[in-house]
Amino acid sequence: MDYRYLKAFTLTAKYLSFSKAAAELKIAQSAVSRQVKLLEESMNEELIIRSSKKVILTKKAKDLLKSIEHFEVDVGEIFEKNQDKPIHIGILDGLLVNWFNPILAKYAQNYKRDIYVHVADSPALRRGIEDGVYDMIFSTDGFQSDLTSSLKLFEEKFVIISKEEINKKKLHEYTWIVFSELDHLYKLSKKAPTKKIVVSSLESIKALVKHGVGIAVVPDHTLSKNHKFHTEPITGLKNMNIYMTTLSYKNMPPFLKEFSKILQAN
């Protein structure tokens, strides 16, 4: 069923006139009549009784018109609600605590939209954006595909933190405090640690290191100027870029335009 046929029928039924329907559609009256006829043939049902002076709707036509009107109202409500739909954001814990919160605050102050922020590791964030769980993610992975698009925001540097000086050649001898099994410490050491603590909170990781429990790798921008950690520069690990990833929209939706303004301002 062609939507054009439904439109021609709706206007004809509304005005009870082929000529008025044709004027609104800006097509010939014969084209409107033809489209309504094709609709009737596709439904195997006569909808409009024609005469030289009058157009009469059958019972089926009146029922169809009501259904179409309900449909148009429902569609309008769907897209109207979409303008204020909540946003689901996926982000790495360190980015949320030390970078994203001020941006989130500015967004909340300027736009009336519900926001859900979910903390996860990079693989989970990637799965989430591809599965439609998140509207946007912020992570160290930049990936372009037919489905997704990534925008580089800035470069992130990492350091090893500990309470006292450590031997970087024997990292496996220390207790590792990590966010997940993909932590950068695994990339720096050829040997697995004798003990590890997995904590899904950057602030907790830093607190444990401060108490002398073990060592950790963190982004340098997460440390304050007066931090009390011993820090070691990292070699053999490339600096990481931070990306914003969304679905590959042809037309940028309102929430992305809104966030773009805030990001550009920062």
Distance between the termini: 50 Å
Report the helical percentage.
40-55%
Order of helices and strands: HHHEEHEHEHEEEEHEHEEEH
Please list the strands of the largest sheet in the order they lie side by side. 4-3-5-12-6
The radius of gyration computed from the alpha-carbon positions, rounded to a whole number of angstroms, is 30 Å
Q: What fraction of the residues are assigned to beta strands by DSSP?
A: 15-25%
Which class of secondary structure composition applies to the elements? alpha/beta
Largest sheet: 5 strands, mixed
Molecular shape = rod-shaped
User: What integer is the average pLDDT?
Assistant: 87
Return residue spans where pLDDT drops below 50 for at least 5 consecutive residues.
none
Number of helices: 9
Count of strand segments: 12
State the gist of this model.
This protein is an alpha/beta fold and 266 residues long.
Report on this model:
- It is built from 9 helices and 12 strands.
- By secondary structure, the chain is α/β, with parallel strands linked by helices.
- The chain has a 5-stranded mixed β-sheet with strand order 4-3-5-12-6, sandwiched between helices. A 3-stranded antiparallel β-sheet has the order 10-7-11, with helices on one face. A two-stranded antiparallel ribbon has the order 1-2.
